[in-house]
Design goal:
Order of helices and strands: HHHEEHEEHEEHHHEHEHEEHEH
Number of strands: 11
CATH topology of the largest domain: Alpha-Beta Plaits
Distance between the termini: 47 Å
Helix content: 25-40%
Largest sheet: 8 strands, antiparallel, barrel
Number of domains: 3
Shape: globular
Strand order of the largest sheet: 2-4-3-11-8-10-9-5
CATH architecture of the largest domain: 2-Layer Sandwich
Number of helices: 12
Structural class: alpha+beta
Amino acid sequence: MKFTEKEKAILAGLNSVGTGSLAALADAANLKTHAVRYGLENLLERGILSPFCSIDASTLGFNSYIAYFSLPPTPREEAERALSSIVSPPNVSWIGELSGAFQYGCTVCAKNVYHALALFDEIAVTMKIPWQRKMFAQRTALTFWPLKFFGRDDAQPVCVEYPALPARCEIDDLDHKILKLKNDSPTMSHSEIARICGQPVSTIAYRIQQLIENKVIIGSWYIINWGRMGIAHSEVSLVLKRLDTSLLKRLVSFGRECRSCYFVVGGVGAWDFQFNVLTEHQDELHRFISDLRTSFGHEIDEVAIHAYTRLFKFSNYPFKDLATVVADT
């Protein structure tokens, strides 16, 4: 997809200032405020950009568990029905179709590994098709650069970092409703949330501020709908020969410096670290792997690559009712 020079400047500005004021974005993009307002609205209307509210479910006592799996030879229609059946259940935050060693990926939010295994059992029953093979890991860390792909070389990208050891925060039904609304409609105003929840605007503003201070809401940004732009998204998962803090920090720094890497994930289980890479051409992914091996080859035991082909579901806060969030397991 082609962008005008003004749109490129706006995207590069968003990479630097995030969802700051129009004046700050206009300054970063070196454009007039009215041109930024028009260009931003156009990008949103075309579905290129989407607002995003980052919610950290780990502050509510949940961990993210990721399973990659393949199915036995199955008619396409039957496989589609099986996959669509697991889009709506609470706790399922992501399911996608992949190419590579596995056909699909699925993430659930669970209290602990035993809870996660029970949830994956439920998913398998709902699908009514046995998993042929699988790979399982727990996410332990996440660092995200939402729009670095469009940033200028001399600009520091907006960085979203989920805390490795989040403080536990107790929420009530009103907090849950606010988080659900912010997940579904990130730009919804305090007054609209107040109207839906039947509360004063001042109460909603106070609750949102508390959720921000307690790191339940990490922040708000724009994200790119890569599929609409013909940009490929691949996961590069690593099994490392050793694990220590300095090596993990170096891997994060490598991802930060690489234009095509827009978030990195630490894990425990089948893999230790993962880069998520955006590419317009296949040779860009090959170049990334080559640079990675040059810098870390002697410390990497195994590299696995999975490319996204379809996204069935992505939710930053998948829970439908408070009982799902606070229930003991």
